[in-house]
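Contributing new records

If you add data, match the layout below exactly. Sequence lines come first and carry their own label; structure lines follow with theirs. Keep one chain per record. Anything else will be rejected by the validation script.
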Amino acid sequence: WSLNGFQRGMVVSIVFIGILLGNTSSGPLGDGLGRKLPILLSYLGIALFSVLSASATGFLSMSGVRMLVGFAFGLGQPATVALLNEVSPRRWRYLLMAQAMALFCAGELYAAWLIWLDDPMMKSLDWRWLCMVGAVPSIVGFVLAYFFLDESPAYLDENGYRQEALAALQSLKDRNGAHDVSCEYETSLAAQTPKSVRDHVATIFSRSLIFTTFTMMFSCLMLNLVFYGSLYAFPQVFTETNKTSYSPAVVLMIGAMVEWPGFFGAPIMERFVTGKTVMLWCSSLSSLSLLALVIGANGEGILYSLLLQAGYLGIKTTISITFVAAYTLASTAFPCAARTTGVAACQAAGRVGGIVAPLIFEMLQNIFHSWEPFFLVLAGGYLLNFVLLFPLKLDPEEDGEEQPLISSKAP
């Protein structure tokens, strides 16, 4: 379609505008009607609109349908994070979040594999075929979620649905083979009245939570800005520098594979230090990796080549660790009644990062005729994130308390 730089960036950014709208819709929907419904609608929408993307005839039609893909994707994210937190024992949350995040890596690897099958050099891709086969995982996910996903017992109890909460707990008990565990509990008096959307929003922006909310939102913004911005920029970086013996598609596949150790490194690190400490370390290491990438790309010889590759792999690894830590902490930072809304606010901020990342890259590229300034801006943003995170108390154990899955106590 002979798109200019702004249009190329906009086709990518419009997806994140849709995700932003989906995230903000998921908060009230997930806290008002439950966690399962947004997840099912998300799977269904991704499959439907991904297939429709293949019928786009121009910039406007492609932008419209890709925004709907993004909306469907964003609708399920906050509810998924909240549900994962609410059905997981405290000691397993980081590991289960890592497994969920690893599926992002699997999706990235799946996409890179499809690209490799179509055109390893990424010069003449059949994007219509890619859109259609890209819908397959969401179809599988919808079927599995419809038949096997239980509603959150914490949500049911918080809204006064005691019998439904007991049934959900019984289902979880049976599937885990915990036949000798009792599901009975005493409902707290506060967990009886469903609250309005306004109450949910007021809770996360209350005096006691507002700095935490904004700091976590900025952390998620930077995380997504680096992830999606680098994902957008890396093909150009490795095409121009040509410091590896692999094709750009293979480099992307290698990057996707090295994210896996990062995802599972986060729960290992969390066994020894707090989640906030993990985020502080990763903010520092991400800044150094971004600088290493720029320095390595501007020199000749094996040392600069290794520095470039170390920076690339460092970015991919630290991003995956931070994803696990940030979203686990975001899900525990807010009370159950407003948890999906709080996570939605954090993920919506992340979507802003995803939206502006390609546009910032193209703008800096046009101004400086180079991709390096984009990565330097990202390095500075991570240093600011470190400063904001340092004074916060985000982990439940820092207050000497265990976060319960249901706001009640066993009889």
